[in-house]
Each structure stands twice: as structure tokens, then as C-alpha cells.
């Protein structure tokens, strides 16, 4: 068994896990070889550094996928694995309160109120994570931990955003971390979430495929940057109209 490092644009898939009659990341991989993803991502969530375990060594350049790139492989790894997710928010929030919310969430908590319930099995909702905020042109929330429950990052990101926009009090966030309720925090949109990396693998990388991944995302984000400027210019023009 070996591990392969992969990136994908989540906009083209119904999530990562294999589903009947749905196009998924795992489903596309299994058309060519048996693969099991280490980390699950929801529909619309992209990844730069997810990991899949495959039964035997493979030639990375032998396979071609639409919006999936396998760019590294490893034959050794060390548990526990650490996963890093990043969620992106607009900068129109109270950044001081955002940072306070990140400090409150960091550490070991019962995250029952921030996860989608899996009714098929018994789940331990007590996990330890670290959350840090980085303020630049936007707000980036980095979530790091050994395991993440279903929709937890997106629900926590939504809670942090609610505190930052003053639609949720800090005290309410504290309560949700201490007491289970019937009112769960809904998940934030998936397209602003990115699975960045899973640490614990000794990967060797294919430079050619890595360049293809870089070029794809560079062009994708360049297009988004141009659209942002078009929108800003349009809004300025409309706001300047004297009525």
C-alpha cells in the first residue's frame, strides 16, 4: 500500500466520498485503481493536499482526471496525522471579535452543536483543534487538528462569522461549547473552504504535475480577481449616481 497526494477543484464533484450515480473524487479515482481517501470533503469543497491510500505503486503520469491531480506519493507515514483546513471570509467583520472567537474555540471541546449528526454510528464529539485568524485583504481562518467531524469546520466558521458581524454574542458561543442544545449552528457555504494539507507523510513530488496544479489554480484565481475588480468598479459607478 502507498499514499498519494492529490489536489482537486471541488466545484465539479458531489463531495469526495463515493456515492451511487454521483460524480465524486473517490469515484473518479476508482475507475482506474482502488483508492480510499483519508479526509472527507463536502460537495463544493476543494483540496490542495488530500491523501488517498492505494493498493499498489502507481505511475502518477499514467492517469488523467478532470479537475483532479495526483502529484505526490509516499511509502512511509507516521500517525497521528494532522489536518489543516482554511476558511475564507470577507473583511467586513470586527476582526478583534473574530480573534477572540478563534481563541475560545481553540482547544478541546464537545463540538456536538457544531457537527452534522451521523445517525448510523456512535460518535465521539469531543475533539481538540487549534484555530487561528489571519487578516489581510480577507480573513483566513486556519483549523488544525487530528480529526474533523462532518461539517464541523464549516459550522465553526459560520459561528465565528456570526460573532464577527454581531448577530451572535460571545457568551452564546461559550455556551454552545459547554452545553448541548437542539439548535445547531448551520454550515457556512462550502466553496470558501479549502483542505490545505495532511501532515505525517514523506511525499516525493512530480514537478510536472505540480506545475499543472499550480497553473490551474493560478488561472482560476486570476479570473476571480478580475471579476472582483469588475464588481467593485460597477458598484462605485452606481453609488456615484446623483438622484
Reconstruct the topology from this structure.
Blueprint: E1 2-8, H1 25-29, E2 35-37, E3 46-54, E4 68-74, E5 77-89, H2 95-105, E6 107-110, E7 126-135, E8 139-145, H3 152-164, H4 170-178, E9 193-201, E10 204-205, H5 207-239
Parallel strand pairs: 3-9
Antiparallel strand pairs: 1-3, 1-4, 2-3, 4-10, 5-8, 5-9, 6-7, 7-8
Offer a concise description of the structure.
The chain has two domains: 2-76 and 202-228, Alpha-Beta Plaits; 83-193, Pseudouridine synthase I, catalytic domain, C-terminal subdomain (Alpha-Beta Plaits, 2-Layer Sandwich), CATH 3.30.70.660.
Describe the structure.
Strands 1, 2, 3, 4, 5, 6, 7, 8, 9 and 10 form a ten-stranded mixed sheet that branches. The model has no long low-confidence stretch (mean pLDDT 88). The relative contact order is 0.19. The chain has five helices and ten strands. Helices cover 29% and strands 29% of the residues. A hairpin with a 3-residue loop joins strand 7 and strand 8 (139-145).
Beta strand %: 25-35%
Poorly predicted runs of 5 or more residues? none
Q: Look at the structure and give the CATH class of the largest domain.
A: Alpha Beta
Briefly note the CATH topology name of the largest domain: Alpha-Beta Plaits
End-to-end CA span:
69 Å
- Estimate nothing, just give the exact number of structural domains: 2
Question: Which architecture of the largest domain does the CATH hierarchy give at level 2?
Answer: 2-Layer Sandwich
Number of helices: 5
State the CATH superfamily name of the largest domain: Pseudouridine synthase I, catalytic domain, C-terminal subdomain
- Main beta sheet: 10 strands, mixed
Fraction of residues in helix: 25-40%
- Structural class call reads alpha+beta
